[in-house]
Amino acid sequence: MSEPIVQFKNVHKSFGDVEVLKGIDLDISPSEKVAIIGPSGSGKTTIIRMLMTLEKITSGDIIVDGQNLWKMEKNGSMVEANQKHLRSIRGDIGMVFQHFNLFPHMTILENCMTAPIHVKKEEKTEVRKRSIQMLERVGLGDKLDNYPNQLSGGQKQRVAMARALVMRPKVMLFDEVTSALDPELVGEVLEVIRDIAKNDDMAMILVTHEMDFALDIADKVVFLDEGVIAESGSASQVIEHSQNERLQSFLSRFRN
Amino acid sequence: MDYVIEFIPQIARGLNITISVLIASALFAYIMAFFSGLCRLSNNVIVRKFTGFYVEIFRGTSLIVQLFWLYYAIPMLFGIQLGSNWWVGVFAIGLNYGAYLSEVVRTSILSVAQGQYEAATALNMSRFQRMRIVIFPQAVRMMLPEFGNYTIQILKGTSLVSLIAMSDILYYGDILRGSYQQQTPIIYGIVLVLYFILALPLIWLTKKGEKIAKKGVAS
Amino acid sequence: MDFTYWSWDTFLEALPFVLQGLGITIGLTFSCFVFALVFGFVWTFLQRIQNKYIKAVVTFIMEFIRSTPPLVQLFFIYYALPVLPVIGVTLHPFVCAVIGLGVHFSTYIGEIYRSGIESVDKGQWEAATALNYSTKDKWLRIILPQAFPPTIPMLGNYFIIMFKEVPLASTISVGGILFMARTFGSEHWAYLEPITIVGILFLLLSYPSALLIKKLEKKINHRFNTSVMTKNTNA
């Protein structure tokens, strides 16, 4: 087994007096596909939001590619990370949001191109080529000059995935990416994720309620319950052999 | 009717003052608006409090009071003649509406959806890039209708410079009234129509701004 | 900065003189506001007439009044009205100011009423019709009670805006605080101190009022939302 690309070490997170995560330990290897499942309010989304630096960590460590994300060394001691430190690390991480968060004032091609050009300072023609390729891959090659509000929810979410992929992250985070979609649009988005999972060798962390889908593509399933990892292992281990009653009752709600 | 034809060119002599004060004070107000609107979002408490003080002072009192105050105070307190009353007018109107518009700038920036900040962060943009590439262009679209509305207010406000002896269209109207008392309704009628004609392009731009604002925000 | 022109003696001398105008300033504000509140209804009513010509004319007149300076409108009423043939009347300056500023701001107030009425859910009209309410009852019992509360903070804001426009009336010799300050100035050849007093008075009065209205707005929003919520749970 290779060195993990992401490690959570005894991570705690509180909002005010409420402790949402009570000591998370989780290793993710490069190219591993991890699905985080669990009842709502169990802190699933918080885990990946902390990895994306959208939420501060309360205590513990998150290690990305050997570097501590939320702490940095200064004069021989570890202090809280500053913006510069966060920026130097989170370039390896990409994220797709529940509500897409496309930039409404840019065309979908511009949505894909802006970060590689301005953040990674890449050459424009190359970025353009790569963005078009990526949009074609998600099936939107004919919509390059459309604005986000001209697209359906499923199309928006596919653009959001292309936008994240163009940055070539080592870790991709998916935050309930089908929850805001009309049921008939869920399929097209899952197809794209399946395609990415099969053909790209980046690590993926999915927070999802699409249980069958998650179990199908995930190398590892993590069941989060009341702020701790209650169960984790391969899909078959977790589903068929777990003795955890809460997991069984949770799963039974999704399968009929 | 003869009077109308006779009066129009007389009153129109004031157009260059009315228009130049409008343009200069509007530009000054826009600059103050962006400058102080952004300052009020600063992390620095002193910067925030200081600009907040400016905004509250100018929003809390009347334009006409500010105009007279600057008219009398600037030469006295600073021992400088601003050169002309034109500058006093531009200063007062610009500072006053700059204060109002800074609130528009501030609230527009704050109303850009949280998800936009998060998406920009996820794409590893710096704070400055996030502002420049993602937040600001969206906020500006939202500001357009209010900037249009306030520019019409600024046009209306320019009429006050006649009170500090600037020869704008109202000033020439007042002069005419001295010699043609019986025609006063025609005189002020012409002045009002001239203001309305000046306002028409601004009304049109405001409507256009409303459309852009509506189109630009939905994601 | 050169403060040698500033005299506290003049300041103290001017203070009681300027304060004499405070009653007029506040009285004029209330009068204008009430006038605008009433006249605003006229605009709203005219705008609801289902005739496109009348609608176009009303919209044009409102737009005209709104986008031309209130100062010129004041002058029109003060100087031009008396010499108009047949309908010409000479009015007391205070009355001129009430009409001039009142009409000007009534066009804004009318828009507020309209937005309030339009904010009432379409289903409310349909429900009232389904329950066979008369037109009068539909308005008085169903629509207006819902349309009015959300407009209160907006109306309050306009009260403060009008308060700050009232000193325009000093130009037609209505004796408010700005008029008194300028009178004092011309008599003593000292303008800075009295006008500073006027500025301070405006701040002292408008800032707390603005805070008060913000508070009111919160209260109304709160009550309005909760009433909507109870309605939903009952439904």
Automatic annotation (TrEMBL), chain A:
Compartment(s) of residence: Cell membrane
Entry-linked Gene3D superfamilies: P-loop containing nucleotide triphosphate hydrolases
ABC transporter domain mapped to chain residues: 6-251
Domain of life: Bacteria
Topology class, membrane: Peripheral membrane protein
Molecular-function annotations in GO: ABC-type amino acid transporter activity; ATP binding; ATP hydrolysis activity
Keywords attached to this entry: Amino-acid transport, ATP-binding, Cell membrane, Membrane, Nucleotide-binding, Transport
InterPro entries: AAA+_ATPase, ABC_ATPase_HisP-typ, ABC_transporter-like_ATP-bd, ABC_transporter-like_CS, Ectoine_EhuA, MetN_ABC_transporter-like, P-loop_NTPase
GO cellular component terms, semicolon-separated: plasma membrane
Family: Belongs to the ABC transporter superfamily.
Name under which the protein is recorded: Amino acid ABC transporter ATP-binding protein (PAAT family)
Source species of the chain: Paraliobacillus ryukyuensis
Organism ancestry: Bacteria, Bacillati, Bacillota, Bacilli, Bacillales
Automatic annotation (TrEMBL), chain B:
One GO-annotated biological process of the protein: amino acid transport
Membrane topology summary: Multi-pass membrane protein
Compartments reported by the entry: Cell membrane
CDD domains tied to this protein: TM_PBP2 (cd06261)
Major location category of this protein: membrane
Family per record: Belongs to the binding-protein-dependent transport system permease family.
NCBIfam families: HEQRo_perm_3TM (TIGR01726)
Protein name: Amino acid ABC transporter membrane protein 1 (PAAT family)
Origin species: Paraliobacillus ryukyuensis
Automatic annotation (TrEMBL), chain C:
Top-level lineage group: Bacteria
Keywords noted in UniProt: Amino-acid transport, Cell membrane, Membrane, Transmembrane, Transmembrane helix, Transport
Transmembrane spans: 20-46, 58-81, 87-109, 166-185, 191-213
GO molecular function: transmembrane transporter activity
Ranges where the ABC transmembrane type-1 domain occurs: 22-213
Cell compartment(s), UniProt: Cell membrane
Its membrane topology: Multi-pass membrane protein
Main subcellular localisation: membrane
InterPro entries: AA_ABC_transptr_permease_3TM, ArtM/GltK/GlnP/TcyL/YhdX-like, Ectoine_EhuD, MetI-like, MetI-like_sf
Biological process (GO), any one: amino acid transport
Statement: the UniProt record of this protein carries the keyword Transmembrane helix: yes
One Gene Ontology CC term in the entry: ATP-binding cassette (ABC) transporter complex
Family (UniProt): Belongs to the binding-protein-dependent transport system permease family.
Name assigned to this protein: Amino acid ABC transporter membrane protein 2 (PAAT family)
Source organism: Paraliobacillus ryukyuensis
